[in-house]
Write a structure and sequence with these properties.
Order of helices and strands: HHHHHH
Number of strands: 0
Radius of gyration: 22 Å
Strand content: under 5%
Structural class: mainly alpha
Shape: rod-shaped
Oligomer: single chain
Length: about 100
């Protein structure tokens, strides 16, 4: 998901909570760093046609499921590292026997 779609989903979430989307609210709710230029661009479009953009926005819960958490990423990297260490050890043993 690109930044614009993510910002749109945050705007929709804020609107559902009864709050008007703003740079500060978007930055505080975002789970990842967002460029200020992207936020301003989306907010400008949002103010011109909020209904049209709200219909396009996916719920934030859907978007967060697509982005792996830090612990999931660490777990995956640790597993890959273990596999690589096992392969290096196996290659080292094979070269030592030759």
């Amino acid at each position: 998901m690109n930044n614009a779609d993510y910002i749109l989903s945050l705007c929709k979430e804020l609107l559902a909570a009864g709050k008007a989307p703003s740079v500060a609210l978007i930055k505080s709710r975002a789970q990842k760093p967002l460029p200020l230029a992207d936020i301003l661009s989306v907010l400008q479009k949002w103010k011109q046609a909020p209904e049209a953009l709200a219909a396009k926005a996916k719920p934030v819960a859907e978007t967060e499921q697509q982005v792996p958490s830090l612990s999931q990423r660490v777990d995956k990297l640790e597993k890959q590292m273990s596999e690589l260490i096992a392969l290096v050890t196996q290659i080292h043993q094979q070269l030592g026997k030759s």
